[in-house]
């Protein structure tokens, strides 16, 4: 089909939107693809909807190939769907909620595990009905605290969410692998670089979970990987290795010493003459449940590392972890800020078995036999030669410390590096958590009721589109990969007289006849500069210019990505375009 | 493609859903197309989504043909979008509302006039940018007080809503006509009978409005039309003709008479010896605004007619009309229930100029010079020979009385008949109401700012699908028209041994190769009776049975609509099917 720019509901904008932090946001708005309606809520203008549809179509094709069946659930669901699984509380403010005119509580679904599980419970009854994988491509709602970066992290977004149902763990493994394979095909077709990392399964629950991350400096996630590619994990899922055990038999008994005013690691390092890595930092934190109840804990880690709150929250979810407040400290005068430690006067001080009874956790990196300089719960004093576990113990181990490049991978493959990335898909083995809570069972071959086992598999359609824009642009605008470009060719008629416009019209019709989708810039009064600038901003991969030379039978074929312009005879233009496309258009069909 | 029933997420149900009042609801649920999630909120199962997509595709094709451009807005919008136009109040409880985590008021959009207007305001600036018609196919939300009849009147539903923008009234007329023509093509392709009726423009505001109604006894709307087809109107938009003026010079002066206990029209008729049509019924009503303020009014109409509250509400919108309550009456002891009238003791009693000051309206049917028997505001008394307007007047005329078959059409085309129907589309000339409220202006050719003029055009996708099911079923199940059937052919393999299944498989592949979408019932253990019953319930228009005779090279071609079964050679089956489809598949391409 031919879309004429003279009547298209598309306006390019000269200025960047004031709140745009990233290139995809700037360019998608300026090139007329999206318009903001509210924080994190966007409308898709006609050309934007075309790109979105193409991404959806690739996802749909690969889901079909993976044997998944498409259906669709409403975005508005009764809140009670989420109560049996506890997710109404887990999501907290992240879920949009409302009451209807009859005061029934409703929710805008952030994800649909419960609804799909209930549908399967409703319709299927036998192991013979399984496996089944069903999915939808649907608008989701999450009331993000900090919607940002345009459609990269919106409050409304389009997602493909699939759910597999099996009755054996082996079945779940197979369904999971099928979806995982489909995702790899999708990202290859979208041309999006990805790394599959072990992930924390978070609010979803379940046993096994992997994230597809797109490595990008604007990513919100940190992941780690080894040089040999044998290990990759989201930083929240990274498992630290404890330091090698040491023989502490030669370490003297702990001895206190004066450290006037040394309430920071730096000051202790100076006064005690040891490196920060040999000081034990004791951080007071509060665990907060969804009703706001606070429990104080202390976490100890090497003095040269900071606590990574996101990693720590994994250990204590669904409770959130917050720094202790002045109010928290006021209730515990025994905690002398800057001088806290697990030990005092020869006895355990922190921990449920200690004097204070405050739960005390040790970072997973701390090794047996390690000797520490740390606080002794008295102002202006520290202790040295405090050996774990000779002199103090803990209520448990947690992954608390920040992860650093150079830390050891848990699989023995050597040091990891840390990188930034954005989650582009997530696959979960949910196991029986949802099916158990909602009573989704089938009869097994022996006629016995068994709870089904589930997986859930999500791809953010709109987020992926934004990342494709991030990965495919230059300072002048977008450069769409051919498989998801909104149009196949952008024909520009420009210059004096009727000839360029007649030639443009004729080429548009020829291109249409060749099965191409054509954007035809037939605007009568815009200058060549404006038209070329718009074409670069909009980012259709191929441009044909019918300009001054059109009267001589020549037009220009312009490759947006390489910026190469070739003069071609009008009669050959569409054939040349088709050839060039055949070279650059890579369709994955393995 | 081939979808095998053995692995399809589709289960037919034997029992009707308990709350199903209409055939489409019963059959779409039983045949596995939809499942209820909440009152008026449904999920679309895989086969249901296929039909929904086909309806959407027809709508989309005709929108494209009409030059409309597709885009999409979020379902979740800031409530403030609706405040400038007053619709937040107009919709009242009908709009789902919520507040986000930052206490910003949000709404689930019942319709998107404001959002589209703001987008045009945002992007366009000149008369040269117009006309433009933009549309979306989108899930809408309305908190209906009485969701019913499955997807016929849901709280979440899919709608195509288009909006035209012009800068002259003639432009609006043309855009309106283009959409109206597109709608006619859509309904012809969907095979849905329709009547275009003049309509009240309701909460939308605006100057001209027509509804497409589908005549059906289960319809919620009443419409009228003349036998010659020259006039048709929604009953709310019907304009009554006042009775011919009469010469009342010979009518004696009004005289009161005793009517002991005659507080009903029937009793007055008996005691006064006049037909009910010559008594004047005075109905006390309350107008209620969205803040709950009540104003009492009295409406007078012929005694043999009832007040049609929906018609009356058109006159007083956005206020709602309610019957007066005992409490209302308690505040007005001057109103003697059963004996109310406009006149008392020779003077105007009701009306802002009357003794009571209570606004008094006269039904539009009341003619000049008509003489009435009516109450005289005193218990057990009435008056006769009370002549309008000789003896009493009113504050205004309203369309209050129910419309009856036999009433005169306002265009002089004679009597109308009343029928039931369901709204399947609505076209509005909104004029400048929204553009004015939201400041949507463009520069005209003289460089002057002019407010744009708009139309809005809606088709309920899911409602139309339900009506197609209503119109296309029998006692055994659905019978889809070919253009929107979820599959083109339903192939059943049944019987002993492998042959029928091999033949079915081979035919399914041949049909797929011929470009048909195939549902293949390959279930190994279901009986022929179950398979045939499911096929009839599901309603694919063509069925091929590979059964007992398959071993002899013969299968049956079954027309679901006519119930005709023809034996055909296996080798010819797909060719015969294709021929038969060519006859029955009517594609409108005018």
TrEMBL record, chains A, B:
GO terms for molecular function: proline-tRNA ligase activity. The lineage of its organism: Bacteria, Bacillati, Actinomycetota, Actinomycetes, Micrococcales. Residues 48-481 form the Aminoacyl-transfer RNA synthetases class-II family profile domain. It is found in: Cytoplasm. The keyword Magnesium does not apply. HAMAP family: Pro_tRNA_synth_type1 (MF_01569). Keywords: Aminoacyl-tRNA synthetase, ATP-binding, Cytoplasm, Ligase, Nucleotide-binding, Protein biosynthesis. Belongs to the class-II aminoacyl-tRNA synthetase family. ProS type 1 subfamily. Its main location: cytoplasm. Transmembrane segments: none annotated. Pfam families: HGTP_anticodon, tRNA-synt_2b, tRNA_edit. It catalyses: tRNA(Pro) + L-proline + ATP = L-prolyl-tRNA(Pro) + AMP + diphosphate. This is Proline--tRNA ligase. Its EC number is 6.1.1.15. Catalyzes the attachment of proline to tRNA(Pro) in a two-step reaction: proline is first activated by ATP to form Pro-AMP and then transferred to the acceptor end of tRNA(Pro). As ProRS can inadvertently accommodate and process non-cognate amino acids such as alanine and cysteine, to avoid such errors it has two additional distinct editing activities against alanine. One activity is designated as 'pretransfer' editing and involves the tRNA(Pro)-independent hydrolysis of activated Ala-AMP. Consists of three domains: the N-terminal catalytic domain, the editing domain and the C-terminal anticodon-binding domain. Homodimer. Signal peptide: none annotated.
